[in-house]
Amino acid sequence: MPESPFTNDSAGSAFLVAPPGGGEGPGVLLLHSWWGLDDWTRDFARRIAGEGYTVLAPDLFAGETPDTADAAEQLLAERDANEMAGLVLSSAHTTRAASADADRPIAVVGLSMGGSMALWLAARLPAHVGAVVSFYGSQSIDFDDAAARFQGHFGDADHMVSEEDRVTTEAFIRIGECDTDFHLYPGVGHWFMEDRPGHGGYDEAAAAKAWDRMRAFLLAELPPTG
Question: Which is nearest to 201 in space by CA: 149, 155, 153?
Answer without folding.
Answer: 155
